[in-house]
Amino acid sequence: MTDSAGARRPPGRPARISRDRIVEAASSAGNLDTLTMRELAGRLDVSHGALYRWVKNRDELLDLIGEVLVDRILPPGEDAGPAWLPRLTRIAWAMHDQFLALPGYATRLSRPHAHNADAIGRLQNAVVTAFLDDGVSAAMAEQSWYIFVTSIVGWLAFQENRLDLGPVAPRFDLFLDALLRGLPAREPATGRP
Question: Which pTM does this prediction carry?
Answer without folding.
Answer: 0.85
